[in-house]
Write a structure and sequence with these properties.
Blueprint (H helix, E strand, L loop, with lengths): L1 E8 L2 H20 L3 E6 L5 E7 L3 H9 L2 H4 L3 E8 L8
Antiparallel strand pairs: 1-3, 1-4, 2-3
Length: 89
């Protein structure tokens, strides 16, 4: 199943400080096949990551361990996602 983690910046100073660790963390999960894709919003107010997990709890645990969440630089919202299959009939 896929889960979207919305990561809104609440402390810009902490975000800048912990962003390298955040990128390293996301990249490692990508290499493990646990992150499908991730990236910043164009308004520079946060970003999102799409996790592949067996349960909401597993996805939330991975997202909550992100350094920018642990250090209070960003808030976290995780939601299960069901992408559409195209073309739609």
């Amino acid at each position: 199943m896929l889960y979207v983690a919305m990561l809104h910046i609440v402390d810009e100073e902490k975000n800048q400080k912990f962003r390298p660790a955040h990128l390293e963390y996301i990249n490692e999960l990508y290499k493990q096949g646990k992150v499908v894709m991730a990236g910043p919003f164009t308004d520079k107010k946060g970003g999102m990551a799409i996790y592949k997990a067996d349960s909401y709890e597993e996805a939330y645990k991975m997202a909550a361990a992100d350094p920018v969440i642990v250090e209070g630089a960003r808030t976290l919202e995780v939601r299960e996602w069901s992408p559409l299959d195209f073309p739609l009939d």
